[in-house]
## 1
Amino acid sequence: MPEGDTVFLTAKRLRAALAGKELARSDFRVPRFATLDLRGQVVESVGSYGKHLFIRTPTVSIHTHLKMEGSWRVFHCGQRWTKPRVTARVVLSTEEVEAVGFSLGTVDVVRAGDEHRIIDHLGPDLLGPNWDAAEAVRRLERYPNQPIGVAVLDQRNLAGIGNIYRSEVCFLRRVHPATRVGDVSDLLALVDEAHRVLTEAVRKPPRRPLAYGRTHRPCQRCGTPLKAGLLDYTAPDYDRVVQRERGIYFCPHCQPVPPM
Ligand SMILES: [Zn+2]
């Protein structure tokens, strides 16, 4: 699942291809926007917030979310697409290139200036210009009983972390992902670590995971074989279990399981 760094880098590539260019053609292959035609509009900017991507013209902002399988690719006009045509959801063409969004989880178009409706509820963006570590800590502390490995995935606390980086950040801070938020000794350091790791990931991609996906491989600090597990939870302000939990990876020595 793409995380904040992937979305940030996708925005960068799309910006290089589209910003300042006039659209020669637009094709929205989702029923709601099938008749929308942005031909003649100039792409003003491309940006990201957490895992949300925005392509902006003077009148609208195209909001997409990659979710599980989504990706944006840029092709020269006439070049063969590298993914099945039927999975294309949005095509934006200039005179030179075609930017194609494949298997996107969300495609939405809002009026220019209405982006805030999409991002208002989110926590600070780890890769944004206004990253605010103290605010992320304040949001995390609202639910002290929640496992930290769950809390950092909640985009309302801080935006940009997915399943890979929650294991990475917990490993780097020697915190077991099941540890209650209220029992994490230095939340600010953990949040700073998340910021550091994602920032590094966009500067020098691809980043090799230290813990994620490394079951049975030796811990790079102490040599103990890493373990995988699952973290069950119900989000604190939801009535129902909303998340089918995905795997956590940790070192049983450096990150001991917290007492229940
Ligand atoms: Zn270890």
## 2
Amino acid sequence: MDIKVKINNHTEPDLVIEEAQTNEPVLSTNPDQVEIDDSHDDLATQSKGCRQRSVNTSAEFGESPQQPPPAKSKARAARSSSHAGQHGAMSIRDQLDDLASRAKDGADRIIHVWRQGWRHTAHQGLPDWLKDNDFLVEGHRPQLGTFANCFRSIFRVHTETGNIWTHMLGCIAFTSMAVYFFSRPASQVRLQEKLVFSAFFFGAILCLGFSFLFHTVYCHSERIGRLFNKLDYCGIALLTMGSFVPWLYYGFYCRLVAKVVYLTLIGLLGTAAIVVSMFDEFAKPKFRPFRAGIFIMLGLSGVIPALHFVIADGFYHAVEHVSLGWLSLMAVLYITGAVIYAARFPERLFPGKFDIWLQSHQIFHVFVIVAAIVHFHGILRVANYRLTEGDCLSDDYVTEYS
Ligand SMILES: [Zn+2]
């Protein structure tokens, strides 16, 4: 007998289980394609009563040889043939029974896939919408079809494992830092500081969180992948905007007009970036330069207030009291990470050698986290300096624009 179990559904992982034994029936789990070939089944012809079929799937997935695969239930098959022969049409009760059987078969199939897992896929075998970096040759996840499968894949090793874990751990780290910061008593951190820094924590946690979610679920389906891709872009804009708020707030602490102008400017640019990234066109490959340009412009808009600090108070003051050095380091880290990501280094030089670990996207993720930590350190220094200086003189606050 030959036993073949095939699951090939667009919303489920590509899974093919085959085991050849002589004189076994051919069985397909596809509800639209159930085949039972009894032509060589001597036992079936000799005893037409109850027949037992066991499908051995252990060869590839290590499951119990006695575990039945999800398939059209025998009861349903028997009922269908009986009714087709005797009455020609099914009664309402039979139809309900049939519906219940189909639901059970569907659930069995999901459980089956859940237990069996999925196979790694080569880049060439991926659907077009999952193809991103052709220098990563092997070890990709196929389309997984359900959120459960996607989240279970966090604990398996594949091309996205490093991307998922870097920003998941980064998100947990920044959430922990935020909880610690906001739980400080007012004698240590005032409400004003908590509100201003909340913009930074909000941006960092959402950016890392959206990125972690995107890398986890983007193989769910094309629609879900596209949605979370947009959230990933939104996260970058939110982190950039949130990072600017404490820096501009404390940097221009006594310069009301400049503070309002620059905060409004970054707010408008960031909002524009979010709106643009909501369009489906934005994620298409042909808009890659435009996409990169939007986020680089957003980040580099910080050059304008930085120059303002230098011109107004001198280079030394800008470095010492507005953390220009730390913020420059942060910018260098972001840009270096982005260049490595865009150049797809090192996998470009050694295709197939960095499929799982140390690929460019993972390095970019690590640079983003380090840059955000450097930025946090920088804005803490600016806030500390400003708060130890005491209140602004009222004349400065109103009239000093420079
Ligand atoms: Zn990423």
